[in-house]
Amino acid sequence: MSSSANRRADRFATLARLHELQLEHARVERAAIDKEVERQSAHVRELETELDNSRAIAQRLVAHASGISVDSLRQLHEYMRWQVGTLAAQQSVLERARALAEDARLHVVRRFERLAAIERMRDRHAKDAATLLGQRDQKALDDQAPVRAVVQGAPGTHI
CA dihedral in degrees (93, 94, 99, 100; nearest 10)? Predict the structure, then answer.
């Protein structure tokens, strides 16, 4: 291969390696984001369970024969209202994390597509370079054929 073809092959290899590293970095980021989404989702489930438990306690206290004081019922409802607010805020955080995870997934896909395109260009270039080299070698052999025939004393040739 010529030196320019070698340089081009080296540039393609470097570019491919750069994109491989970027793809790996994007995958690591996505894994971290996915882990955070799962953590946020678990937190939402915990808050939902706590709210359900509070509602069940309130129902039992109201249904109990001795009843519940108005002040205690008011405090319980305030606590449940706080839980609902906390749950809504956590669900909002979870939705943002899911959107971020989807963006990270799309980023990984784009990086992978770029890497695949670079690898296809690199392979096409290598094939074209090999074909060109083969054509040059064949032309050189074709140009040398009459000289070889004379040197070897082939029949039908005279010096």
Answer: 70
Residue burial 66-75, b: 16+ Cβ < 10 Å; e: rest = eeeeeeeeee
64: helix, coil or strand?
coil
Which H or E run contains 139? helix 70-151
Asked whether 90 and 40 are in contact (CB, 8 A), the reply is yes
- Condensed to tens digits (0 to 9), the pLDDT of residues 124-139 reads 988 988 898 888 888 8
Q: In the chain, what is the straight-line distance between the N-terminal and C-terminal CA atoms, in Å?
A: 36
Give the model confidence (pLDDT) of 65-104 as tens digits: 677 788 888 998 999 999 999 999 999 999 999 999 999 9
What pLDDT sits at residue 157? 54
Query: CA-CA distance, 137 to 25, in Å (whole number)?
Result: 43
Domains by residue range for the chain, with CATH: 3-150 (1.10.287.1700)
Distances (CA, A) of 24 to 11, 41, 74, 105: 20, 26, 54, 12
| Cα(62)–Cα(78) distance, integer angstroms | 16
Identify the burial level of 151 via C-beta atoms within 10 angstroms of its C-beta, where 0-12 means exposed, 13-18 middle and 19 or more buried. Answer: exposed
